Amino acid sequence: MQKKIVITGGPGTGKSTVIEELILRNYDCMEEISRQVTIEAQQQGIDQLFLTDPLLFSEKLLEGRMQQFQNACELESDLVFFDRGIPDVHAYMEYANQEYPEKYVVNSVKHKYTKVFIMPPWKEIYTSDNERYEDYEQALKIHTYLHRTYHELGYEIIEVPTGTIAARTDFILGNI
Length: 176
Known about the structure:
The chain is α/β, with parallel strands linked by helices. The protein has eight helices and five strands; from the N terminus they run βαβαααβααβαβα. The protein has helices at 15-24, 34-43, 49-52, 54-73, 87-95, 103-110, 136-152, 165-174; strands at 3-9, 28-30, 79-83, 115-119, 157-159. The protein has a five-stranded parallel β-sheet with strand order 2-3-1-4-5, sandwiched between helices. α4 packs antiparallel against α5. It is globular and about 40 Å long. The two termini are 13 Å apart.
């Protein structure tokens, strides 16, 4: 049976860097899609789609993450890593105090992951950029919403300690 592993956490915690390391180690990974959604919106003249139309942004993310889940099911791999999971979508909506359709939670329940690793906020590595608009204080709050959302869905959440990319990747692999 295929193991689907989510690596989640607030912005700027090193998730994508660990995913890149897993790819270098020849693991199948589903990369973060929110940057692509943001960039596509910017190309259409919308600076921050999540801030302008959180529901539209979240709909695009939900659709993309469900497609990633389906794509993973079609792989012959026994182990697939995800840079964020479906529950991240409604966790962010909760953080933004936005209403969202019940299908967000329904799809989070329907598409189950095997394990969830959360990367804690780490001020020393945090940076913002054109696609990551949140400041560090907002990243701390987002972390809390992500943790709560996965917990409410019944997941055991494993916190990844800070450290080198290799050490963090080894920690995740050692706890699967």
